[in-house]
């Protein structure tokens, strides 16, 4: 490891843990050797040095599981390249269940991991004890066995990666702190250290615990919080078998593995605490926090019942060290939305060792190729909300991430901490109507409405939950009469100026240069043809446009817009989301309802589908746009916040004769899935192009000036489509789908479910799922064959369609 600070480098990686080392190694493998790793202490001194070394594939999303599978390949092959061992041993993992609810979770987990091709087998109690004889069978319900999981040594793996990188020319400099990042025109240009400046093209923030503070130096928001995290290691235990499977017991908040003749017992228990929330000490390395046996003891005692061999074992080490956790439990991996060539790989929620080799590999490919080989919208920095870097918010929400880590991961589970924060102007009205709120991006949103005789709370299960019939009634109201959805949390971007139309035309695949008072549905692509945004654009007048986006994507879309403004563009962009309420008035009786409260002509001739205009409503004025996300006749109303209550009252007073009903987001999701409408971040993202996503109808190939990504998309069109987003319904009305379930065609794994909900009109679970063919095939291939979707560890027959299964000709919205 050299000591000479270069004047320039192509890439500077700040942080010498396993993630930074992996990124350097894989950049070097790709031929990028002008790379410098800066470590202010010594390599591994952040959190890598005290990692427990587990390698478990049961992660929460398809993309993060793909990262671990990349890691597994690296653990197994790295020694051959570098000569340094990773210490990896394939031992397997047993996720055990001590309750019926936990077994339900394991059944669903068994199915979803198979969508990644991960080997997993449900075992009964006898089989579980046979695999791990130290377990007490009392209270066991069974387990889920991952035979290809294993464990390794964090320090050895990191040093092996460092050796592989330095042998190829990478410089790893210890004892040098990066004190600032230099920028110009929203792009990285350098890194400042105490020893001097380095001119750079790319910076990688792999600073672990220090990720939030280091990101802030460049104006990059990286929400993460260090929390106390415990494990103990016992004395030697006579005759202890070696390389037993790791045991993970969610109900006991613990994992156990054999360690140098003893047992390591680690905990993901409730009741941890935030450390260094007002700033991590900059000069600290190899940090240890105080022991707290009063806190940990009861959890350890509980585990003794599950593994009696612990009862007489002495304690060799009681370790507490800080780990970084994020508000949503997903790590940050990708480019900062507002700063070009600044990449973040931090906040790994105590899975940095098992994810690090794969994450570094993916990040290196992203830097070299300009796109990620694994689609990971869940780790994208564009998802970050401003309030998530607030210290008090982080202290509460990151703690909840740790508290829930080993709890049952229920479908539709809601976070409860740091609430309420952002509320719609109509929050009081929806609450009075019986709303049961969920939270998204800090917004309190009505997920479903409870009748006066029902409790306003979730009762979680893997079957139909307590809100199922209430949401079904809301769904039917929209399909049969009229429903009103408070969509105020949706993002609203005002784009205006002389060159606004030119900017939006350059971004949009559709033609947004329409006459005033028209709305256009479009995608924005990257240079590779991938979908960066899925939005509507309303032309308010000659040089003013309103872009509507989802609450989870508006920050990302705003950054994308600003990134593509040039010095020659006379155009401004402003987020005006908080200035307006928004109501979706949807259903076959929506016209009849609105005619009672406005003088505007709402006939199809005067107000056709796609039209937008300011109309009077009650005693005020709103912008009404005839569009739909639920597949019915309806209008979206943009309402000045100060008259939102009045508009709500007017609508519901007039709507009594129409059977009006407030509807929540669960109903909106079931309605949109019956129509096959896409959702960015769930069904489509930057790794998918419009042809694969079934959105080719929105692409105007020959519009003047073209659009970003046109050349790549044209090449994809010429090559043909080998994967498609397909709509499915199950043939069994009692079976449910959630997401990531594997899809089989003629008995072969061909894809996974992207998003799903029960379709109350279709009478069965409905889903959008990605299906891959062996090569480019005709459209008919995707609808042919015998399809099955595996859910809860059993396969259910499914019907596939590329046209919407509900109202395939889209006649109802245009009626």
TrEMBL record:
Using the record, list the residue span of the signal peptide; answer none if the entry has no such feature. Answer: none
Q: Which domain of life is it from?
A: Bacteria
Residues in FAD dependent oxidoreductase central domain copies: 369-424
Q: Where is the FAD dependent oxidoreductase domain?
A: 11-366
Aminomethyltransferase C-terminal domain location is 723-807
Q: Which Gene3D superfamilies match?
A: Aminomethyltransferase beta-barrel domains, D-Amino Acid Oxidase, subunit A, domain 2, FAD/NAD(P)-binding domain, Probable tRNA modification gtpase trme, domain 1
Q: Which InterPro entries match?
A: FAD-dep_OxRdtase (IPR006076), FAD/NAD-bd_sf (IPR036188), FAO_M (IPR032503), GcvT/YgfZ/DmdA (IPR028896), GcvT/YgfZ_C (IPR029043), GcvT_C (IPR013977), GCVT_N (IPR006222), TrmE/GcvT-like (IPR027266)
Q: Which residues form the GCVT N-terminal domain?
A: 426-703
Q: Which PANTHER family match?
A: AMINOMETHYLTRANSFERASE (PTHR43757), PYRUVATE DEHYDROGENASE PHOSPHATASE REGULATORY SUBUNIT, MITOCHONDRIAL-LIKE (PTHR43757:SF15)
> Which protein family is named in the record?
Belongs to the GcvT family.
Write down what this protein is called. 4-methylaminobutanoate oxidase (Formaldehyde-forming)
Kindly list the organism's lineage.
Bacteria, Bacillati, Actinomycetota, Actinomycetes, Pseudonocardiales
């Amino acid at each position: 490891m050299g000591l000479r600070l270069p004047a320039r480098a192509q890439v500077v990686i700040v942080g010498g843990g396993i993630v930074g080392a992996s990124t350097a190694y894989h950049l070097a493998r790709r031929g990028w050797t002008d790379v410098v790793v800066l470590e202010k202490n010594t390599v591994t001194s952040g959190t890598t040095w005290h990692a427990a070394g587990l390698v478990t594939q049961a992660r929460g999303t398809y993309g993060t599981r793909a990262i671990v599978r990349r890691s597994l390949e690296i653990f197994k092959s790295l020694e051959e390249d570098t000569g340094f061992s990773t210490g990896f041993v394939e031992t397997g993992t047993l996720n055990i269940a001590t309750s019926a609810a936990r077994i339900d979770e394991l059944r669903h987990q068994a199915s979803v991991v198979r969508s990644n091709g991960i080997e997993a087998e449900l075992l009964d109690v006898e089989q579980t004890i046979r695999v791990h004889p130290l377990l007490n069978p009392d209270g066991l319900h069974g387990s889920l066995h991952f035979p290809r999981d294993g464990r390794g040594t964090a320090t050895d793996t990191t040093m092996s990666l460092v050796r592989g990188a330095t042998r190829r020319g990478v410089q790893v400099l210890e004892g040098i702190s990066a004190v600032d990042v230099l920028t110009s025109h929203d792009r990285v240009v350098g890194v400042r250290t105490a020893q001097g400046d380095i001119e750079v093209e790319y910076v990688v923030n792999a600073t672990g615990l220090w990720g939030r503070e280091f990101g802030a130096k460049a104006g990059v928001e990286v929400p993460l919080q260090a929390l106390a995290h415990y494990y103990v290691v016992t004395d030697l235990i006579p005759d202890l078998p070696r390389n037993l499977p790791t045991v993970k017991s969610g109900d006991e908040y613990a994992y156990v593995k054999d360690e140098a003749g003893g047992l390591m017992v680690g905990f993901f228990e409730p009741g941890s605490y935030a450390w260094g929330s007002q700033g991590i000490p900059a000069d600290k390395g190899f940090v240890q926090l105080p022991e707290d046996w009063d806190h940990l003891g009861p959890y350890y005692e509980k585990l003794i019942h599950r593994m009696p061999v612990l009862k007489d074992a002495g304690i060799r080490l009681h370790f507490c060290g800080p780990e970084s956790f994020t508000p949503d439990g997903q790590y940050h991996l990708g480019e900062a939305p507002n700063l070009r060539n600044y990449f973040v790989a931090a906040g790994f929620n105590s899975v940095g060792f098992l994810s690090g080799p794969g994450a570094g590999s993916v990040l290196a490919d992203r830097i070299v190729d300009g796109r990620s080989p694994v689609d990971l919208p869940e780790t994208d920095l564009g998802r970050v909300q401003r309030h998530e870097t607030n210290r008090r918010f982080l202290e509460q929400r990151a703690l909840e991430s740790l508290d829930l880590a080993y709890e049952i991961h229920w479908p539709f589970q809601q976070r409860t901490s740091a609430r309420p924060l952002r509320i719609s102007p109509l929050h009081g009205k929806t609450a009075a109507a019986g709303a049961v709120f969920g939270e998204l991006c800090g917004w309190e949103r009505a997920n479903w409405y409870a009748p006066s005789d029902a409790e306003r709370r979730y009762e979680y299960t893997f079957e139909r939950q307590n809100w199922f019939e209430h949401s079904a009634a809301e769904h039917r109201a929209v399909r049969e009469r009229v429903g009103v959805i408070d969509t105020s949390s949706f993002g609203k971007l005002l784009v205006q100026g002389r060159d606004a139309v030119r900017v939006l035309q350059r971004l949009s695949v559709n033609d947004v240069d329409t006459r005033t008072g028209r709305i256009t549905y479009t995608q924005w692509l990257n240079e590779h043809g991938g979908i960066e945004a899925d939005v509507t654009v309303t032309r308010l007048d000659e040089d003013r446009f309103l872009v509507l986006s989802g609450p989870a994507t508006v920050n990302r879309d705003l950054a994308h817009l600003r990134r593509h403004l040039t010095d020659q563009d006379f155009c401004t962009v402003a987020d005006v989301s908080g200035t307006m309420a928004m109501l979706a008035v949807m259903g076959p009786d929506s016209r009849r309802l609105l005619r009672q409260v406005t003088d505007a002509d709402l006939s199809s001739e005067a107000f056709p589908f796609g039209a937008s205009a300011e109309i009077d409503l009650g005693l005020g004025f709103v912008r009404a746009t005839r569009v739909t996300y639920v597949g019915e006749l309806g209008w979206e109303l943009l309402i000045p916040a100060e008259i939102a209550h009045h508009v709500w009252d007017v609508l519901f007073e007039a709507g009594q004769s129409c059977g009006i009903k407030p509807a929540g987001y669960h109903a909106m999701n079931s309605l949109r899935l019956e129509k096959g409408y896409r959702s960015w971040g769930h069904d489509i993202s930057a790794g998918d192009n419009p042809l694969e996503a079934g959105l080719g109808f929105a692409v105007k190939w020959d519009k003047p000036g073209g659009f970003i990504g046109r050349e790549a998309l044209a090449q994809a069109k010429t090559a043909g489509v080998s994967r498609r987003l397909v709509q499915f319904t199950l043939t069994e009305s009692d079976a449910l789908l959630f997401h990531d379930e594997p899809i089989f065609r003629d008995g072969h794994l061909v894809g996974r479910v992207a998003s799903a909900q029960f379709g109350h009109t279709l009478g069965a679970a409905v889903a959008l799922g990605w299906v891959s063919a062996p090569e480019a095939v005709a459209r008919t291939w995707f609808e042919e064959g015998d399809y099955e979707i595996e859910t809860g560890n059993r396969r259910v027959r499914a019907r596939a369609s590329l046209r919407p299964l509900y109202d395939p000709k889209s006649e109802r919205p245009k009626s």
